[in-house]
Specification:
Layout: E1 9-12, H1 13-20, E2 35-42, E3 49-56, E4 60-70, E5 84-88, H2 89-93, E6 101-108, E7 111-114, E8 117-119, H3 136-140, H4 151-165, E9 174-178, E10 181-186, E11 192-196
Antiparallel strand pairs: 1-4, 1-6, 2-3, 2-5, 3-4, 4-11, 6-7, 7-8, 9-10, 10-11
Helix pairs in contact: 1-4
């Protein structure tokens, strides 16, 4: 991320915690998947600023939207637009569990602060998640077809959505299934979803992602 002196902003902690459930294991050689991806963008249709927050291991993907605000109302958000960074999960796990929002600020060219935690963003190219999330028109043409999924991914997906919505541990979310294409777990609206690759007929987890509707305005 090549920028300095970004104005401090607030970001939703539930979105950050939700993404942690879907990041790659630390044994995964793709080190850039060990953190949570955050990108700040202004919506094309509404002009409302949001942060898209994501976590993936290549077979499961959480993506959600977080409202953002500047800590100082007199400072604009525009300097953050189209900026992105990958936050190490240790910085997120150290957050106050009762906090609903947290301050994100930049200290210098490669040092940031999340709440009281100082961190260096993970240096790497995050997958282009915008390419794997289709629009609603494409989804309308798909028929739902039963599929098999790794039980651990289903558990992680449900926990991610529970964290995002601050729901009770007994809450269970709907899973839309599309056969050999990716399934989607969601809450019936387009602020957050978890994409889950099915187990292919050869017994291997799929790699191509295809998902039901999500608010693409911020991708």
């Amino acid at each position: 991320m090549e920028t300095t002196n970004l104005n401090p902003i607030t970001i939703n902690t539930n979105a950050l915690r939700a993404a942690v459930h879907c990041v790659a294991d630390k044994k995964d050689l793709r080190y850039y998947l060990h953190g949570v991806y955050v990108k700040i963008k202004q919506g094309k249709a509404t002009n409302e600023p949001r942060a898209v927050v994501a976590g993936t291991n290549g077979s499961i993907l959480f993506v959600g939207l977080s409202e953002i605000e500047t800590v100082n109302p007199l400072q604009p958000l525009t300097c953050w637009f189209d900026q992105s960074l990958i936050i190490p999960i240790d910085a997120i796990k150290a957050l106050d569990k009762k906090a609903l929002t947290v301050h994100l600020s930049q200290i210098d060219a490669n040092t940031y602060r999340l709440g009281n935690v100082v961190f260096t963003p993970i240096d790497g190219q995050y997958p282009d998640i915008g390419r794997v999330i289709p629009d609603s028109m494409l989804l309308d043409s798909k028929a739902q077809t039963p599929a098999n999924y790794h039980p651990d991914y289903l558990t992680r997906a449900n926990k991610a959505l529970q964290a995002f919505y601050g729901a009770k541990p007994t809450t269970v979310y709907e899973l839309a299934q599309y056969g050999t294409d990716a399934g989607i777990m969601h809450a019936g609206e387009n602020r957050a979803q978890v994409v889950i690759m099915p187990i292919r007929p050869n017994g291997k987890q799929g790699t191509a992602l295809s998902t039901p509707a999500f608010n693409r305005d911020y991708l």
